Amino acid sequence: MDTKISARDVKKNFFSVLNDDVLYHLCRVVMHTNTHHGLVDLSMVDKRTRMIATPLIFSTVFFIPFWGEARENVEIILKNTRILSSVQKLILDLWNCPGAGREFSTAIFTLSTSFPRLVEFSIRVHSQLIPQSKQDLDECLKRDPSGSLFPPSMRSLRIENEGWVFLVDFISQLEYLVIKPDSFGFYDVPLRSYLGKLGNMHPGLRKLHCPSCCVTENVREIARCLPNLRDVGFIWGKHRRCYRSGTSVLDHLESFSMFSMLENITLPNISQLGLGYKRPPVRESMGFLFDSSLEDRLATQKEQAIERLLGGMEEILLTKHGSWLQSVVVGDIICEVGANRRFRRS
Question: What does the mean pLDDT of the chain come to?
Answer without folding.
Answer: 80
